[in-house]
Design goal:
By secondary structure, the chain is mainly beta. The chain contains 3 helices and 17 strands. Helices cover about 10% and strands about 40% of the residues. The structure holds 6-O-phosphono-beta-D-fructofuranose (F6P) and fe (ii) ion (FE2).
C-alpha cells in the first residue's frame, strides 16, 4: 500500500470555507425544489434570489478508499422558506453504517436525524459543540439561527450519499420550523410515508 502525504487545511469561519480544500460544491436556492412544505414561499424565494448560494461545502478528500477520511466545512445561509428554516437536502450514507461528526464553528444549527424506521432525533449545534451522527441515521443540517451556520465535519471517505431514501418517503418525518418565539420546533411532515419493513430491514442489514 502506497503512503499518502499529510495534509493541512484552515477553517475560515468568516468565509465559511475550508482553505486548502480539494472539492467545493454549492446548492443554490433554485436547486432545492421540493424540499420545503410551502411551495408558494419557495417560489417567492427563487424569484428573489434563486441563483444565490443556499449552502456551500468545501472539503479535503485524500481518496475514496475504505479507511480514509473526508474533512470539510459547510456554510449555510440563515433564513426561512415560509415558517421552515433553511436546510440541506439531507441523506443517508450510501454505505449506511458509516458515521459522521460535525463541529460547530459559528451560528446555531439543528442536526435533524431520522432512523430508517422513522425515529426522530434533534441535536442543537452551537460553537464548539461536537455532534456524533451514528451509523444508519439519515441526517440533515438546519440553520435555526440568524447568522450563517458554519460547521466542520468529518466522515469515512467511502461513505457516499443516498438522497433517494428521503425522496421516496416524501421528505424527512419532521420539519424544523419557527416556534413563533424566535426559536425552533419540530413538527410532523404531513407528506411523510413510512418505509416498508422490508426496506428498513435491508438498510439495517448492510454492513459492507
Ligand atoms: O449532501 P447534502 O445533504 O447536500 O449536505 C451536505 C453535507 O453532508 C455532507 O455531504 C457529509 O455527509 C457534507 O459534505 C455536508 O456537510
Ligand atoms: Fe453525511
Amino acid at each position: 500500500m502506497a503512503l499518502f502525504e499529510p495534509g493541512i487545511g484552515y477553517v475560515d469561519i468568516a468565509a465559511g470555507q475550508l482553505k486548502g480544500a480539494t472539492n467545493r460544491y454549492v446548492k443554490t436556492f433554485r436547486d432545492l425544489e421540493g424540499l420545503y412544505e410551502d411551495a408558494e414561499a419557495f417560489a417567492a424565494v427563487v424569484a428573489a434570489r434563486g441563483d444565490e448560494v443556499a449552502y456551500e461545502v468545501t472539503d479535503y478528500k485524500p481518496s475514496a478508499n475504505a479507511g480514509d477520511i473526508i474533512i470539510g466545512v459547510t456554510r449555510m445561509e440563515p433564513g426561512k422558506v415560509g415558517r421552515e428554516y433553511h436546510m440541506t437536502r439531507g441523506h443517508i450514507h450510501a454505505r449506511p453504517n458509516r458515521p459522521e461528526m460535525y463541529y460547530g464553528e459559528s451560528g446555531l444549527g439543528v442536526m435533524l436525524l431520522e432512523s430508517p424506521a422513522g425515529d426522530i432525533r434533534t441535536v442543537e449545534i452551537g460553537p464548539k459543540a461536537i455532534c456524533y451522527v451514528p451509523p444508519f441515521w439519515i441526517h440533515r443540517s438546519v440553520n435555526v439561527g440568524s447568522e450563517p451556520l458554519v460547521m466542520t465535519f468529518a466522515y469515512p471517505a467511502d461513505s457516499g450519499q443516498d438522497y433517494d431514501v428521503i425522496a421516496k418517503a416524501g421528505g424527512m418525518k419532521s420539519r424544523i420550523v419557527d416556534d413563533g418565539r424566535g426559536g425552533w420546533k419540530a413538527i410532523d411532515n404531513t407528506a411523510y410515508l413510512t418505509r416498508p419493513q422490508a426496506l428498513v430491514d435491508s438498510i439495517m442489514a448492510r454492513l459492507d
